[in-house]
Write a structure and sequence with these properties.
By secondary structure, the chain is mostly helical. The protein has helices spanning about 1-15, 20-25, 30-45, 45-60, 65-80, 85-95, 105-115, 125-140, 150-175, 180-195, 200-215, 220-240, 245-255, 255-275. The protein has a domain at about 160-275: Alpha Horseshoe (Serine Threonine Protein Phosphatase 5, Tetratricopeptide repeat). Helix 2 runs antiparallel to helix 3, helix 6 packs antiparallel against helix 7 (about 105-115) and helix 9 runs antiparallel to helix 10 (about 180-195).
């Protein structure tokens, strides 16, 4: 116990002294000695200081065996510091330099892990998410037996679900902005593209509402047919989702589509009678 304490105390004093490993690493002219100072800093989780030394070491060990060790130490430090873009670049560099090395799977896996740490929210630009998906496809092709695949596929599923959600919300925007004709078209397209999506019931509900509201706001020449189409859509919706019958009945009552359809039919008959001089029966 005493030896462990003394070892810890020595490391602490070394790191906090004026002549700590960073200062020594910057001062020395011996590259191998500088590398040892970088390792000491890494072991003590001084990642920002590690990166200062590895920037020098990369140049000193370029095209030498130690180069890969230096870059990996820098990549790990950047990952710990949440500098995910820098970590991605360094792990990709390691893999590209040694695609057939025994550590190639590790390098590529860490590259994908770094990508997964820097994914955007589903409603933002998906450039990094697309890069993750394409890189994972390549990883699975090259390392089909990797134990990391299961973990990465969970992230893949989340990304794909986010893309579906974004697609649904884009279609729903037409309804929210009262562009009902476009809403019907795009929501139906969404259903064709993602027939197994959990958003399908909400899509069909919005289509019923869109057809109903479109019918009410239509010009007289199109109103009757669109009202009948909306009523059919509501009936089909209730057959498919009987648990939502109360909502459908309430919605139908509020819009009073059936009564509007009856009135339009009566007006149509009256107009025909007047046009052709047909007298109504008593």
């Amino acid at each position: 116990m005493k030896k462990i304490y003394l070892s810890f105390l020595f490391s602490f004093l070394l790191l906090t002294s004026c002549d700590n490993p960073l200062n020594q690493g910057l001062k020395t002219t011996d590259s191998k000695e500088r590398l040892q100072f970088a390792k000491t800093l890494f072991e003590n989780q001084k990642y920002s200081q590690v990166i200062q030394l590895t920037e020098i070491l990369r140049k000193e060990f370029n095209k030498q065996p130690e180069f890969m060790e230096v870059v990996e130490m820098s990549a790990k430090s950047n990952l710990e510091l949440k500098n995910y873009g820098l970590a991605q670049g360094e792990y990709k560099e390691l893999y590209d330099r040694a695609p057939r090395d025994s550590k190639a799977e590790h390098y590529y896996g860490m590259y994908i892990l770094a990508l997964s740490k820097d994914l955007p929210d589903y409603n933002l630009d998906q450039k990094n998410a697309d890069l993750f998906l394409s890189s994972l496809t390549s990883f699975k092709s090259q390392f089909p037996s990797s134990e990391k695949i299961a973990e990465f596929e969970k992230i893949e599923a989340q990304i794909k679900e986010g893309k579906i959600r974004k697609r649904f919300e884009l279609a729903k925007q037409y309804f929210d902005t009262q562009n009902y004709k476009a809403a019907i078209y795009d929501l139906e397209n969404f259903m064709s593209e993602h027939p197994e999506s959990s958003y399908i019931p909400e899509c069909e509900k919005l289509i019923v509402e869109s057809k109903s509201l479109l019918a009410i706001s239509s010009v007289l020449a199109k109103k009757k047919d669109r009202i009948l189409e909306a009523i059919d859509a509501q009936n089909n919706f209730v057959q498919k989702y009987p648990e939502l019958k109360d909502w459908s009945d309430s919605y139908l009552t509020r819009l009073n589509l059936a009564e509007k359809a009856r009135q339009l039919e009566e007006e149509s008959i009256k107009n025909r009678e007047e046009r052709f001089g047909i007298k109504p029966k008593n």
